[in-house]
Amino acid sequence: GVCLWLWGWARFKACFFPWLVLGFAWPLIFLEESLGFHLRLVMVKASSGLLEWLGVGVVREGTTLISAPNPEKGRALGAIFSLNVEGACSGMRSLFALLMVGAIFSYVKQPTFWRRIFLFLWSFPLAILANLTRIMILLGASAVFGQAFAVGDEQKETSNFHFLSGIVVFMVALLGLQAISSLFSRIWRRKRVTKTSITV
How far apart are CA 131 and CA 134, in angstroms? Predict the structure, then answer.
């Protein structure tokens, strides 16, 4: 309001987007209990569905993914992995960060308002996909290297691998945003060339 009153609409428009970006710094902690829980359920269902599609036996107990028993190979329930998708693994915190990254990325990569909005909206499904990728990596590492290495144990709550796997979330999301942005720009460029050729 002060910017609009003192410097006018032109300066207000120039400062509007940076002001919106500052809004992402406000912690929406109250959403972690409501929206975060639903995201946990989405992650558990998506992970178990993907594992079953890959032919990996899995038992779902609440928000915990447990490897199914295999009597033929002498494997008990949870012998390969047992991962509890807690609040931190729901993707809620990374969603906030990715929304900010998606907003900045869209603002820089696309020239018009509606194209920026279109690209920004892809941040939501990409955040879920990126977090799903992280969970699958943790489950795979648990099966290959053991639960203590991939996730952690009672003495060490979070392993270094578990901590570093969070980088995968941003890598997958940024690659997805770049791919969608490039595809959208290519389609838009073709439409402009087609319109120009028709006009000529």
Answer: 5
In the three-class reduction of DSSP (H, G, I as helix; E, B as strand; rest coil), residue 110 is classed as coil
The span from the first CA to the last CA of the chain, in angstroms, equals: 47
Cα distance between residue 63 and residue 160, in whole Å: 23
Selection from 86, 181, 102, 173 nearest residue 133 by Cα: 173
Sign of CA dihedral 182, 129, 38, 153: negative
Residue 88 CA, distance from chain mean position: 12
108-130 pLDDT, tens digit each: 888 888 888 888 899 888 888 88
Residue with tokens 């990569």: 109
Contact 119, 64 (CB under 8 A): no
Q: pTM for the complete prediction? A: 0.77
